[in-house]
Amino acid sequence: MNVVELIERKRDGGALTPDEIVWMIGRYSADDIPDYQMSSMLMAVFKEGLDPEELSAWVDAMLHSGDVLDFSHVAAPKVDKHSTGGVGDKISIPLAPIVAACGVAVPMMSGRGLGHTGGTLDKLESIPGFRTALDPPEFRAILEKTGLVLAGQSETLVPADRRLYALRDATGTVPSIPLISSSIMSKKLAEGLDALVLDVKVGRGAFMKELDDARALAETMVSIGTVRGTAVTALLTDMSQPLGRTIGNANEIAESVDVLRGEGPADVTELTFRLGEQMLVMGGVAPGPAEARAQMERAVESGAAFEKLVEVVVAQGGDPSVLEDTSQLARARNETVVAAPRSGVLARCDALDLGVAALRLGAGREKKEDGIDRGVGIVVPVAVGDTVAQGDPLAILRWAGERRLADAMPLVERAFEIGDEAVEPTPLVYGEVR
C-alpha cells in the first residue's frame, strides 16, 4: 500500500478500506509513516470525515495497536469517566476519588491538554513527584490496592492514539467527531471497563460549539461502546463559560481539593455529583441517582474521598503534603488584575478566549514539544448573571514573562461583557445520551 495514494483518496472524498486503515495505523505506530504524512491524513479526515465502516476499523486499529488491559481480578465494578475537554474542567480529579471511596474501581486513563483545553495529566503533574506514566503491571497493582488509578497511556497501551493525540493538538485537527470519538473510545475500551460515563462539552469553550454536534459526538461514542459490549452513558454539559473559578494546572489541583473538602465552587461540585451518580448507578453500587448522591456526600463529609486522593497520590509517587496545604503548589510570582470597566450584570464570560489566554500564558502547549508552566493561570471570581461594580476583579492572571502576558491580555479583556439587564445562566447539563 502507498500512504500518499491513501491521503489523496481521502482528501478527494473517497473511502479507505478496513485493511488500508489497519495497515496505515500500524505503520505509523512503527515509525514507518512520518508525522508529516499522518498530519495530511488527519487533515483529510478532519475535512471529509469517516463513514461508519471506516470509523469502526479506525477504532479497532487503534485499540489493537498495543496492549489491552484485563482487570478481571479486581472484584469491584470497573467504571471510568472521560470529558471531551473544556476550560477549567478539573472534574476528573475530585470525581474519581469520590466514586472510588463509594466502592467503584476507577481505572482512569486521562490525556494532556488539547488546544485551548486543559489536560488532567498536566494538572496532576503539578503534584511534586506524581507519576502518570505507569506500565500495565503497575497500573493493575495500584488499581487492585487502592481502587483508583490516575494515569496516562503507557508506551504499550494504545500507542497509536498516544501519538495521534499529540499530532492532532499541533495540527488544528482536534474538533472532529470521528477523531475525537476514536481517540476516546480506543483508550477506554482498552481499559477492560464494565461501564463508561462521558462528559460531552458544548459551547464556545468546547470542541463542539453546537448542541446538535455534541449530541452527534455522544451518539457516536455510545454506539462504539455498545457494539463492543461496554455500557456507555453521556451527559451533554455546558462549556460557554469556564468551570469553577480557576484555569491552569496547579491552581486547578487546589480547587479540586476544595471540592473534596466540601468547599468547592457550586458548578464544579454539582457536575462532579451528576457524573458520579451515573458512575455509581452503572456500577451497580447504588439503585438510583438520589442514593448515589447521598453516598458521595457522605464520602466527602467523612473525609473518605479526600483520603482516597491522598492514597493514590502516595501510590503514584506524589507528595501528599501539597494536598494538605495547597499553598505549596506552584504559583507564578507576577499578578495582574483585569477590573470591571463599569457596573452592571455580567452577560458574557467567554470560555474560549480565557482558555486561549491561559494557553498563551504557558498553561498549555502551542507545539507538541512545548513544556507547561504549572504555576501560571487565571482566576475568574465571577460568573454570567453576577452583578459587578466598576473596579471589581473580573480575572486575576498569574504570569511569568511579559511577552506572554501581552499576548494573553487582549483575549482576557474581550472575554467579558457587562450589560444592564438580568441574564439567565445557561443550564449546566443539557441532557443525556444512552
- Could you say which structural class the secondary elements and strand pairing correspond to? alpha/beta
CATH second-level architecture of the largest domain: 3-Layer(aba) Sandwich
**What is the domain total for the residues?**
3
Major β-sheet profile = 4 strands, mixed
The tally of beta strands, per DSSP, is: 13
The helix/strand order is: HHHHEHEHHEHHEHEEHHHHHEEHEEEHEE
User: What is the CATH C level class of the largest domain, in words?
Assistant: Alpha Beta
Molecular shape: globular
CATH topology tier name of the largest domain: Pyrimidine Nucleoside Phosphorylase, Chain A, domain 2
Task: Give a written overview of the molecule.
The structure is a single chain. This protein has 434 residues and is α/β, with parallel strands linked by helices. It has 3 domains: 47 residues, Transferase, Pyrimidine Nucleoside Phosphorylase, Chain C (Transferase, Pyrimidine Nucleoside Phosphorylase, Chain A, domain 3, Up-down Bundle); 248 residues, 3-Layer(aba) Sandwich (Pyrimidine Nucleoside Phosphorylase, Chain A, domain 2); 90 residues, Aldehyde Oxidoreductase, domain 3. It has 17 helices and 13 strands. Strands 1-4-5-13 form a 4-stranded mixed beta sheet, sandwiched between helices. It has a 4-stranded antiparallel beta sheet with strand order 6-9-11-7, with helices on both faces. Strands 10-8-12 form a 3-stranded antiparallel beta sheet. The longest helix is centred in the middle third of the chain and has 17 residues. The radius of gyration is 21 Å and the shape is globular. The mean pLDDT is 95.
